[in-house]
Design a protein that fits this description.
The structure is a single chain. By secondary structure, this protein is an alpha/beta fold. 40% of the residues lie in helices and 23% in strands. The chain has eight helices and eight strands. Strands 1, 2, 3, 4, 5, 6, 7 and 8 form an eight-stranded mixed beta sheet that branches. Helix 5 links the parallel strand 4 and strand 5. Helix 1 runs parallel beside helix 2 and helix 7 packs across helix 8. The radius of gyration is 19 Å and the shape is globular. The two termini are 14 Å apart.
């Protein structure tokens, strides 16, 4: 997901103007590494990079000052949950949103954090393998059914659970037994999952080879949504 954004920003001409920031724990470090690798492969060079103390940072001003002083033309970040809410709000309050566009891994604006970020999230662009705004028959039906049941639209986390049940159901139809080895072999033969809300995908080395989408937070009739800007194509999990 982060590598897809690295490639996209490099191809967009921001090869010498991106600052990267994420919380200092395994996921944050891995996301920045994935972004950096793809960005540099596309000819990019980061103007700066830093990590913030995970789970304890409530004031991002010192880090935002570093971004401002770096000469960055764009920021790439990875935050999720409560940290995503705080970072996006403070990024806008500090005055950076209007001068240094914010990009991120899709978890930055996904699910329940987006309405809590409010207007501060407008214009933020992210990459992810799903948005409830995807226009395909499977997603249209899924969003409607999910909203009818839960009173809200699904997130990528909802789709992950749905797809897990879907592929397990397919595997059980061809498995020769119910032990782990037999189910694993059956999952390996599932082939393309052509009825997923995220769009068609398939297993590759036990991880999804799937479409990754560039999304932008927009106001749709008073509701903030992750609108689809571009399908960046099928992406494989980069080698570690």
């Amino acid at each position: 997901i982060s590598a897809a954004m690295g490639t996209y920003l490099a191809e967009s001409g921001l090869t010498d103007g991106v600052y990267a920031i994420a919380p200092d724990y395994a996921a944050g470090n891995e996301v920045i590494a994935g972004f950096r690798s793809a960005f540099e492969a596309g000819g990019g060079t980061l103007v700066g990079s830093t990590t913030t103390p995970f789970g304890t940072t409530s004031d991002y001003q010192p880090f935002l000052t570093g971004i401002q002083q770096s000469g960055a033309r764009a920021t790439f970040c990875f935050y999720s949950g409560a940290e995503a809410i705080t970072f996006v709000k403070q990024y806008q309050q500090f005055g950076l949103a209007s001068t240094i566009p914010l990009y991120g891994s899709g978890f930055l604006t996904e699910g329940s954090v987006l309405p809590q970020q409010g207007q501060a999230a407008l214009g933020v662009q992210t990459t992810l393998h799903y948005s409830d705004q995807l226009d395909n028959p499977a997603n249209t039906a899924f969003v409607q059914a999910y909203n009818d049941k839960h009173g809200e639209n699904p997130s990528c986390f909802s789709v992950a659970s749905y797809d897990a049940a879907n592929v397990l159901n397919r595997a059980l139809g061809s498995a020769t037994a119910l032990d782990g080895d037999a189910l694993s072999a059956a999952l390996g033969g599932v082939g393309e999952v052509d009825d997923s809300p995220r769009g068609p995908w398939s297993f590759e080395n036990q991880t999804p080879r799937q479409h990754v989408y560039l999304r932008k937070v927009e106001d749709s009739g008073g509701t903030l949504v992750n609108a689809i800007v571009q399908d960046l194509g099928l992406k494989s999990q980069p080698a570690a």
